[in-house]
Each structure stands twice: as C-alpha cells, then as structure tokens.
Amino acid sequence: MGRSQETLGKKEVRKKKEKKRKDKEKKRALKKTDSGKSSFDDMIAYVDEFGVISSTPPDPTRKKQEVIAEDIEIQVVRTNPEDAPDYHRKGVVTFYNDSKGFGFIRDLESNMRLFFHASDVQEPVKEDNIVAFEKGKGPKGIAAINVRLFKEEK
Question: Whole-angstrom Cα distance, residue 126 to residue 146?
C-alpha cells in the first residue's frame, strides 16, 4: 500500500529517521571490525624518573641508583611569632548605626572600606573614632573583627 495521505513534511521526517538509523548501523559495524585492534598493552603509559610519560617500557638493563633511607633529610621549618605578618590594622569609623548594630571602617593603610558588626566591637565606638581591628571573614566577604578604640578624635 502506498502512503497517499503522507505530506511533504512527514516524508522528510521519515527519511531523516531512516538515514539516522542506517548511520547508527554503519557505526556499529565499524566498531565491530575495529575492536580487535586496541588492546590493554596499547593503553599502558610509563613514567620515567624525571616524570616524563612515554609509551615505551623502561629499560631493565639500566643500572638503578640505590638510595639509603637514613640519608634522606626531613626538616620542619619553625616560624617565630615575631616574624608573622601584622594583622592588626588601624582605621577610622566612617559610619556607625548603634540602633542597628553595624558600621563601616576606612582602613588607614589601604583606604579599603570594611564592614563591622556590633558583636565584634570590644569597646563602645562612634563616628570619627580611630580604632584598631583585625581583618577577618564575614558572612559576605572581608570584615573587621575585634574592633577596639585606639584613639578618640575631638
């Protein structure tokens, strides 16, 4: 029986599906014929003493260097607390809302504006106070923590 009710669009869709199915069959047939070519030995990679990856195995006749375990020196470097970078900074309170419990400090070294919360304040502060603080991680980025009064401006 013919397909008399088939429109041009339906014919094209049917042809595309048939072509796709035939292409899949061709790919499967190619995989079956090529499957014998690859083996486990083709997939192995070797690494030499310098960290270079190659497909050739190492030479077994090559003389290996003996290493005595006692000759290996392991050392732990101790750091002095005096050598640690100074995380204590100074800044000016540019804005402080006591009722809401937050404010901003302008760092005197980097002119960076840092947020601080009232829970991180150790002494009462107000605007234009010079404070000492530490930089730390806040909920939305870098924030000032351990804020304390350094010197009060008059």
Answer: 15
